[in-house]
Predict the structure.
Amino acid sequence: MNLETIFYAEPPAWTNTVQLLGYSVDVEAAVAAYNWAFGDGSEMTTSEPGAPYPAMDIVHEYSDAHVTVRPRVDVSYRIRYRVDGGAWQTVDETVEAMGYSVPLQVREGSPLLVGSAYP
């Protein structure tokens, strides 16, 4: 019996201000997409990060038990900036931050019928 495995990410918000050629430049990165690679060849792209149990926003069902897979999530960011408090400008391309793959041992769930407490 294969159960769904819940996945979620907690990407940090990223903002920074730098001085460049005498100008103050504000830079912000906002998540554009989450690119999930489940380690068994299956992939999925979402706009939301998912959430921990009991939410089941991002789930994957592995077909093979007793194997170790290496899932990861890569996050695509949309970048915008402004110079000296002016209007925000958006960079056309997204920037992808590759996630770390981690070992995940796939287990198999087995139903167990037990006797009733009543005769």
